[in-house]
Amino acid sequence: MDWDSNNLFQDDEDQDDTFTQDREANKEFVIYMIDAGPDMFIQIKQEDEGKTETHFGTLVKCIVESLKIRIINKDSDEVAICFYNTREKKNMQESEGVYVFNVPEREELDRPTARLIKDFSRIEDKFKMEIGSQSAIIPGSRENPLYNALWVAQGLLRKGSTHNADKRILLFTNNDDPFGNIDRGAKADMRRTTIQRAKDAQDLGISIELFPLNRPGEEFNVAIFYADMLELEKEEVSQFIPVAVEKFEDLKNQLRKRMYKKRTVRKITLVVADGMSIGLHTYALIRPAIQGSVTWLDSVTNIPLKSESSYICADTGALLTEPLPRFQMYKNEMVKLTLDELSEIKKVTSVPLRLLGFKPLHCLKEYHNLRPPTFLYPSDEEISGSTCVFIAIYRSMLRLQKYAVAFYGYSSNPQLVALVAREEITSSSGQIEPPGMHMIYLPYSDDIRHVEKLHMTTNGPAPRASEEQIDNAVAMMRKLELKDFSVYQFSNPALQRHYAILQVLALEEDELPETKDETMPDEEGMQRPGITKAVQAFKDSVYGENHDFEEAEAEATKAKGSEASQKRKASAEVAAKEAASYNWSELADTGKLKDLTVVELKYYLTAHNLPVTGKKEILINRILTHLGK
What does pTM read for this prediction? Predict the structure, then answer.
């Protein structure tokens, strides 16, 4: 296999690694283009409480959910909502039949806001009165609303470059023939100009995605017009509708999840040998998703507050302006250290990453991975020729099945690392994993915890599982095997609830959205006969056939004991309260304990957790002994 060193490890972005540019590089500009023709308001099914559901109403709900998720996923994205086939017009080009929906204090293409979501969610009730719907092409008119909408969308997406932003038009319609009700000559002309307008937009790096909707009793036929507009191949046409339906479902059921893009964590230098170094960029492929930090606001202006720390001299009360000195006790003397001296002491090496040698891949064990690895990718920005050297080492490691051992001299935690080469993984949809190296953090000998062997016990040999128990365990594990398991299937329930609460507060909603905890066991699936039988067989082989009955008896006994314990505790609390009303030391000194009743004497004994059995004289002697009289 031949490798092109010019583009195999070429950086996606030839920019400085700054946070602002990094956010810009993964920005999305999205236009929600919605057909507002009369067919979109046809009833498709009856809802509860006598309401009717239409394609227009379904789209409004879908886009509202998409906007909610987009705020959480990537808050730097910018969106616009554009209706076409409308009676009223509102757009920068003054094109007929196109209405760009917006709210005050917001640009037409801008980040989604809570106010935009709230106002758009109510658009269905007032759409026909304030904006209005009209047929796709009015007979005798040369206006082409679909062409105008594409022109308006292209104008909205004029900002930004396709090198640092993805520009998309999401087109929603249930009309597969937008020019079906006009004469043949005008239809051919409008068809040609609309296809050319779409092609011009795509040439500018704008992708157009169609989301077709089926009218009642009629399937959307993409081959009539949209296959030509989207330049679909013959084999793509037959598979278009199923794929589009799946994309529409994904749009409705998106997960509340922060999207973290590929971002350089730091730039390091790998010293291969004396006089030979290569520049590398490191990327974090896995990182914990956490709740956003709390920001304190001014109670009057609502402006975020900035916190500052100042040190005051304890003797004079003066504000200290110079950095506080540090010291370390050594032989009963204070050794003062400056910040520069401390930094130099902590510094292990001036070389971030030094190659030590190579080992066979089979020597690297799975349990050697202390934490998520870091992905390494070459860069010629700092050291020219780094990519060529990296490719040579990379190809050799793959061919010889070796991994590199290196010393990672990071000041806070210097350690040994393994550099493992990984080939590119692709599929029909594109690249899944890029080629490069994974830097795996290796343990020191001090970090390894050896498994302790179970030795002979005082009661005899260590317990061993019988063949029957092992066979039953294998059968149970096979029944409980998770098919096609992937960590990507499970979202963090705490984060999902956190985002749901933020959504309710921001949009002033009445009810908390339902969040599904996917980490909970499948109770219904666990009750299938095959699983329950396998689990019961394993329990019987380990604990015996009467284990469930014995366990139930033990639980009942425990419950009875717990009830008796609660009664004793309540009795002790009453006794302590009653005993507190007597001066027991004075009663003992004056000899008046004999004047108390047995019940009163037991108050003291119960409160101090002493035995309460015996005659009155025994109880009095027990109290005197406890008092030290």
Answer: 0.60
